[in-house]
Description:
By secondary structure, the chain is an alpha+beta fold. It has 2 domains: about 5-75, Alpha-Beta Plaits, CATH 3.30.70.20; about 85-285, Metallo-beta-lactamase, Chain A, CATH 3.60.15. The chain is built from 7 helices and 19 strands. Strands 5-6-7-8-9-10-11 form a 7-stranded mixed β-sheet, with helices on one face. Strand 9, helix 5 and strand 10 form a beta-alpha-beta unit. The model has no long low-confidence stretch (mean pLDDT about 95).
Amino acid sequence: MADFKKRLVENVDGLFFVDNTCIDCDTCRQLAPETFAESGDYAIVAHQPENEIELRKATHALLACPTGSIGTTEKIDTLSVMDDFPMPITEDIFYNGFTSKYSFGASSYFIRHPDGNWMIDSPKYIPNLVKKFEKVGGVSHIFLSHQDDVADADRYATYFGAKRIIHKYELRAQPEAEIVIDGNATVSFGSDFLIIPTPGHTRGHCVLLYKDHYLFTGDHLWWSRKQKSLIASRSVCWYSWTDQTKSMEKLMHYDFDWVIPGHGERIHLPTGTMKNHVERLLLKMKQ
């Protein structure tokens, strides 16, 4: 729980506040951009909710915050809002919320599929999510993009009997993973799921292409609301920028119209426009 005594002075006065345990993961700004803003190394409350919609979105941010750094000056209804998670992105893709500090607030997702549901990276292990997943058939596979974003994947795998998928070079994060990707060749799971190794951010980083439309990108690339473009960051490239550039070039061979990342904004664009953005990013990376 956030501590009012640790409240950041940059917060505007009112119901919501952020304290100095914030790790600036961007989760709150994605969920409630009307309320939260960036200030140096922290998120702050820049504008208090003015209506029920803004209040609900700010409460989403409070619940999803990985470090419990968002608080309120009086009690609010979080139980009914908690039931909004997982939140729909499309008819069969959902944002899980409840991000984990162990994955630095990385987003995770759920795909409802007739041949078995998939989890993309992992949120905190939350009974509310477990019940929701149970209602739609559980979880059959957990795709882990890389070692940074595994969070509580082992607990979900144990509960649902799910098969975790991770690259060999990331295996230290989930040493008992059931399916291990080896090498740089793409791997198909049925007709809808394609795992594409994209080394760079880490040595065994992978992305997942779903139905030739939805690219779950982990920490490989994401949309910047400030720059209004796709970006990748050399400053958080832990393995090889050269390899990450080559991995970006590999994506030019695939068509997709969604980028759904672990960190940063997701974006939906026409396929041709998306390819142009990837190409521009690739040129910047090569420079």
